[in-house]
Every structure is written in C-alpha cells, then in structure tokens.
Write a structure and sequence with these properties.
The complex is a heterodimer of chains A (about 400) and B (about 150). Chain A is about 40% helix and about 15% strand. Chain A has about 400 residues and is an alpha/beta fold. Chain B is mostly beta strands and about 150 residues long. Classes of the chains: A alpha/beta (about 400), B mainly beta (about 150).
Chain lengths: ~400, ~150
Amino acid sequence: MHPWGKWGRSFVEYGVAAARAALADAGLDWRDVDYVAGADTIRNGYPGFVAGATFAQALGWTGARISSSYAACASGAAALSNARAQILAGLCDVALVVGADTTPKGFFAPVGGERRDDPDWLRFHLLGATNPTYFALYARRRMDRYGATDEDFAEVKVKNARHGLANPYARYRKEVTIEEVLASPMVADPLRLLEICATSDGGAAVVLSSVDFARRHLAGPGAAAGRPLVTVAAVATVSPAYPNTVIEMPNFATDSAAVVPASPVGPFRASIAAAAYEEAGVGPEDVSLAEVYDLSSALELDWYEDIGLCAEGEAEKLLRDGTTTLGGRVPVNPSGGLSCFGEAIPAQAIAQVCESVWQLRGEAEGRQVDGARVAVTANQGLFGHGSSVVLTR
Amino acid sequence: MAKTRIPAIDGWFSTDEAAPTLLGARCTACGTYAFPPGGTFCPNPACEGTDLALVPLSRRGRIWSYTDARYAPPPPYVAGDPYVPFSLAAVELEAERMVVLGQLVGGVTVDDVAVGDAVELVVDRLYEDDEHEYLVWKWRPVGGEGRSAR
C-alpha cells in the first residue's frame, strides 16, 4: 500500500508504489505478472478509466494482459474478482490487482459539466443531497428503530481511531474522545464531522496467484519462503435483487414493492456478505475479524448486522460490550477503517484485503487480532455495487 | 416585475398550485411504479413491459427518515448567499410502496419532525436567477395527523 493522505500527486505514483510493495512482499518480479487488473478512478481523466493499462505502462510494458474495472466504491473488489476468475479459469498464474486515487477536498461532487441525464448530477442539483445525506438517513433510522444514541455513534469513531493508531498506512492517527466527537460540527444531523469519512489519496495492491503456484512459491527459496498461505475463499460482487427498498446513493427513490413485495435475497447490504459466506463455505460464527465500509460511524453498526455478527437491532450491544474492539471476540476495522483512512475509492476495497492478509499472517503490528483465521470484508457503493471478500489462513 | 416560475426539471412533477404531485412511471403490463419517470423498461425483472404510463404519485406519505444539510452542498446545487441550511426527508408512499427523497420546506428543522410523521407534497422554489424562479418538489409536515405506529 501507499499511505493514505492528501498528497496532491498523481494517482499513478500511489498505484505504482503499492504495486511494487505488493510484489516485494510476494517475492516476485513485475515481469512475473501475467495479468494486471486495475480499479478505475473517474476523477483523473482517461488514464483513470484505463487504470490497468496505466499501471502496466508505468511499471513498464511486459505484454501482460490487462483489464480495468469500474464499480464505484467496489471497483477494487471488481478488479480482484476479474483477476481471480482468470486464475480460476486456468488462464494465468500470477495477477496484480491495483487501485489508486487522487481526490479533491471536501464533499464528493459529481463529475463536472451540466448533465441532466445523470442521477448523480441531478441529486446534487435538485435536492442538494450529498453522500452524508444518505449516511445520515440510515443513522437517524437506527436511532428511531433501535434506540442508537449519539454516544454510540461517537464510540465507533473512538474505537476506530484507537485501532488505527499504529497503522502506518492510515491518514489519521490520533486518539479522540467521545466528547471531542460530539463537539465536532454537525454536518448532516445526526452525523458530525468526525463521524463522516473524508476523501483521501492512496493506493493499494495485491498479488494474487493460483493455489498451486503459491504452494510452490512459498516452499521455494525466494523472499516469501515460509510465509503462511492466505486464500481468497470468496469474492462476492452481487447486485441488488428487485425490489431494493432502501434508498441508496444516488437515487431519488427506492424501488416499488407494490407488485413484487420482497426481494428473494433480502436487503441488498445483507445479501452481499451472505453471498460471500455461501461461496466460502463459512459463516459469521467463523469470522475472526471484519473490515467494513464505515463511510459513517453509524453505518459501521449497520454492517455488524449485515455481515451477520448479530441480529438486527443488536449492533449497539456488540459495540458497547467490546465485542468489536481489538481484544474482543470479533474486532471490526482493526485497520482503523475509513474513519482513519478516508476514502480513496478504487483503492479502498483492495486496502481491506491487504489488512485482512496482514492480520491472517500475524503481521499487523500494533493492531493484531490474536489467532486470526478467517477475515471478511464488506463494502458498498453507488449504482448497485457492493463487495464482500472472505479470506482464510 | 414578477419572475417566471418554471420547474427545475421537466416532467418529474405537476405544478398544479393547489394539489401538485410527483409524476412516476407505471408499467401498463404489471403495474409496478418507478420514480423518476422517463425510463424505457419496467424495473420488475419478471416483466418485459416497455409501455410506462406517466401517473401522479400519492401526495401524502410518512417520513421514513430525515436529516439536514448544515453546510452548502457543492455545485450543481445552487446555494443562496448567505447559505441557509435545509432539511431533507425520505418519505414512504403507501400505495406505491416506495420511498421518495425530497427537501423539507424551508424553516422545518430536524427538531420539528420524527420518523412516521405525515407529510404532503408541495412545489416550492429551489433557486432563482434574474428572470426565473426554479421550482422543485418538497415535503411539508401535515399538522394534526399525528405519528404512525412504527
């Protein structure tokens, strides 16, 4: 990974730095890579739309096959899924997955120009509905339905800030108190400034190989010799099943349940991890740690339920009793999460995988989950995108 | 001279001053609803309908959730100077069984509403320039109807 921050340099630099770090970690040379899967950024011109090619060219053309994926916040997982499918199909042995972004300051605004046929443009123009608007709707709903409090939301931030303290890739490494969170300015009631994830520059990469290749390679004399084998047991990139009855960015309305009363797979967010568990053949009871998309402090609590750590309405209890804190039964966001990173869109889902790998190998210095065997990630983005990755040791 | 009042977007709501409505799409084959209108295909995966009728949606609903915007949203939102914060509500329409997002009318704060409150649709000013007032739909709390069981 390249550390998250507001560096103001080209996304290509972060991506290449992350790629070189991943290759060094794997004990492989760039020329060993058969396939490059880039995760796209849409705020950096044409090179961002063809991220796979951009990174391959920056690393030096080798003839490797390339792909570029865009799936909003799930772009990194889409790239991972592409690379994995190539490997599982027997088309290649070693793939490099890279995502990186350079971001503007402040609220994410839509891509420029007057675009009256683009719902993302229109929701800003007609409603002034920013991303925090949607996060806040979910947060208020939790308060109303389950009795979540301002203090619960603040406690998520306090926990994640503590988790991220020792993470060298995190942008914010500073402890905060509940009082400081509650004293930060209200942005979108009930969410305050310190509870809403920032936009960041950053880059993340993973080297993925077939299991056979990995076994041989880890048994060999290279830099990775003797390392534990971490397996990607599932990559779920499912879309919603009609009707999606939760209002989501950038939509003006939900689907209508007038004719089809309920989705066959339930609410979208919960269906993402459910698909990953099914593919991996594990369940939430097997999970040692989770990296979830805490776009807001309150949203992390929704994820506890959506990835099956507890029943609906019980997330606050899990938080309050320390279950999801480092040292608890199933720490959530041991990396510090988006709370400590901010969001570098195409890199973020890959960063969740990087953290999971370090945790499963026992290399997450200062934030290690003891005896971690199974990690799950969860993420969601605009336009029906989401992802969940299960990794096992 | 009075400014001309025009919709900020065409075809998404009626501007009938007394009883404005949102305009949704309704599939003539299966009856499913969608908002905004303008799509070509019925969103129901079990239906291949392409004849979507423009229909008025329920004028009243109940608040599913709500929030506000304490800081000016970035363009293309046209923020006044000085910026005046506004509130938003996601509103459940009973007949259509869907939730539609909109601003709450000016002056309504998050302290004035709760999940389950009844609201009705109005058409109100979104922003203006020298010649025009641009209109959009907003939700207005309906006093006296109380809160739904939830």
